[in-house]
């Protein structure tokens, strides 16, 4: 299905040297035009429809009716014989979990399954100090400390079993590094992601655009993207933001749990959202073509960012606050704003974000997906499990091999169509990413210049006079 783009003049701000922010919203999902590749042309389970209109002009009236009656009798006899309650089951061919899994496998060949957040790079730092030369990512599940760690859920065989098409690898830096060596640690994490991809190029390829993502998925490798986690990684510098982008980072999580001097995080005691410099960060990300990630931000920061951005945003690994009142989850009023913005909330699997306690099931995760679908719409929900950054996972979703089982379980619900499944799995995130690229391209055409605003000086004893 194609949605036509309504021209949106607000996407093109006039050239400006200082940004006076005017709230910008898109007109909901119909403003977005995503042309899925290799999908929707046909489907193995698409229901067969008999058109009688054109046939009637070519055949006699009696012929088709006779055929129909015969077919009905045969089908009814078979159904009665097999005990299939056809009248109550719109997808009688999807009776077993294995049949549903087979459908999921077919769907994920054409549509990349995209996960919004994986913390394997931080485990590489913790466990092997970023020394990758001797690491066999195909065998770590049998090696300590990986095999014994509750924080380890990712390796190549399980990624392949999980049919992952694209993964945002997190270049995470802890809040404790803020105003110290946060920029250096982030650079090192970007470096380790790139080397990980390079050393395993048979399976991974670094991608920087939606076109590259689709090409790599078609080629059968896992498209690997870099997401920088925590605005404190910028060291209060837009030059550092631009450098991260040039190194391949395609989203920035605006804060981790801590406040930065320009944005508040989930642990904040303040009422502030974004400062003037924080608004400049959002604008510069729009100009660069970098996805704005609001997981971990305070809700005031999320609202302020949604007011400033000209492009859709994501929550790369957050669930629904209505079902579990963790400050990391997204309340309904923000879910509605996300629908208006055209963004995506990618559901997190950490049990403390799913059930607010140490245990959860696949059904609990499905409840979050369904809640976001109900409040924001099917076009605004995705998957951001957070594997390798969590130490408690739902039963049935123990590691990265389990995504197909989640999708197959959703298919057991007659209200979930194949189109819904591929929207959740990857098309929604691709749509956001494409729109972010589109805004970048339009701003480039409009000759919007880089933002040169500076953050107020911190008078940090660790800084030189040149900071
Ligand atoms: Zn996180």
Automatic annotation (TrEMBL):
Residues in coiled coil: none
Organism from which the protein derives: Exocentrus adspersus
Matching InterPro entries: Metal_Hydrolase (IPR032466), Pept_M19 (IPR008257)
One family name in Pfam for this protein: Peptidase_M19
Assembly notes: Homodimer; disulfide-linked.
Keyword Membrane annotated: yes
Subcellular location: Membrane
Database matches in SUPFAM superfamilies: Metallo-dependent hydrolases
Residues that span the membrane, as ranges: 65-88
EC annotation from Swiss-Prot or TrEMBL: 3.4.13.19
GO biological process, one term: proteolysis
Keywords carried by this UniProt record: Dipeptidase, Disulfide bond, Glycoprotein, GPI-anchor, Hydrolase, Lipoprotein, Membrane, Metal-binding, Metalloprotease, Protease, Transmembrane, Transmembrane helix, Zinc
Swiss-Prot/TrEMBL cofactor(s): Zn(2+)
GO cellular component: side of membrane
PROSITE patterns: RENAL_DIPEPTIDASE_2
Name of the protein in its database record: Dipeptidase
Bilayer topology annotation: Lipid-anchor; GPI-anchor
Family note: Belongs to the metallo-dependent hydrolases superfamily. Peptidase M19 family.
Catalytic activity: an L-aminoacyl-L-amino acid + H2O = 2 an L-alpha-amino acid
Domain of life per record: Eukaryota
One GO molecular-function entry: metallodipeptidase activity
């Amino acid at each position: 299905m194609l949605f036509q783009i309504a021209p949106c003049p607000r996407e093109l701000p006039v050239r400006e040297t200082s940004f006076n922010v005017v709230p910008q919203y898109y007109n909901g999902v119909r403003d977005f035009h995503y042309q899925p590749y290799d999908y929707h042309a046909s489907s193995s389970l698409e229901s067969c429809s008999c058109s009688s209109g054109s046939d009637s002009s070519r055949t006699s009236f009696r012929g088709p009716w006779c055929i129909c009656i015969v077919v009905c009798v045969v089908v009814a006899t078979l159904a009665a014989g097999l005990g299939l309650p056809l009248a109550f089951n719109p997808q009688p061919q999807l009776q077993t979990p294995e049949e549903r899994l087979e459908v999921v496998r077919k769907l994920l060949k054409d549509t990349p399954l995209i996960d919004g957040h994986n913390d394997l790079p931080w485990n590489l730092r913790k466990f092997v100090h970023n020394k990758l030369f001797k690491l066999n990512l195909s065998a770590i599940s049998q090696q300590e400390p990986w095999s014994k760690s509750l924080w380890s859920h990712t390796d190549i065989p399980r990624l392949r079993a999980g049919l992952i098409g694209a993964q945002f690898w997190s270049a995470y830096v802890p809040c404790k590094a803020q105003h110290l060596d946060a920029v250096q640690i982030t650079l090192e994490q970007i470096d380790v992601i790139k080397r990980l991809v390079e050393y395993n190029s048979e399976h991974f390829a670094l991608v920087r655009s939606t076109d590259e993502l689709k090409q790599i998925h078609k080629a059968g490798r896992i498209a690997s993207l870099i997401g920088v986690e925590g605005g404190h990684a910028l060291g209060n510098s837009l030059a550092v933001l631009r450098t991260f982008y040039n190194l391949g980072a395609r989203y920035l999580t605006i804060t981790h749990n801590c406040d930065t001097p320009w944005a508040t995080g989930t642990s904040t005691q303040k009422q502030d959202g974004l400062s003037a410099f924080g608004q400049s960060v959002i604008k510069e990300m729009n100009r660069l073509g970098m996805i704005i990630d609001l997981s971990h931000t305070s809700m005031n920061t999320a609202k302020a960012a949604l007011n400033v951005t000209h492009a859709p945003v994501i929550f790369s690994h957050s669930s629904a606050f209505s079902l579990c009142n963790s400050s990391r989850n997204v309340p309904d009023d923000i879910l509605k704003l996300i629908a208006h913005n055209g963004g995506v909330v990618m559901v997190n699997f950490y049990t403390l974000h799913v059930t607010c306690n140490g245990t959860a099931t696949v059904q609990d995760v499905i409840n979050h997906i369904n809640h976001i679908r109900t409040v924001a719409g099917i076009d605004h929900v995705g998957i951001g499990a957070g594997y390798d950054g969590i130490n408690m996972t739902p039963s049935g979703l123990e590691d990265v091999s389990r995504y197909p089982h989640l999708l197959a379980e959703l298919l057991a619900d007659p209200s979930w169509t194949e189109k819904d499944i591929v929207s959740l799995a990857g098309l929604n995130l691709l749509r956001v990413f494409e729109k972010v690229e589109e805004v970048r391209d339009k701003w480039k055409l409009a000759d919007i210049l880089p933002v040169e605003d500076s953050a107020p000086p911190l008078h940090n004893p660790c800084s030189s006079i040149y900071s």
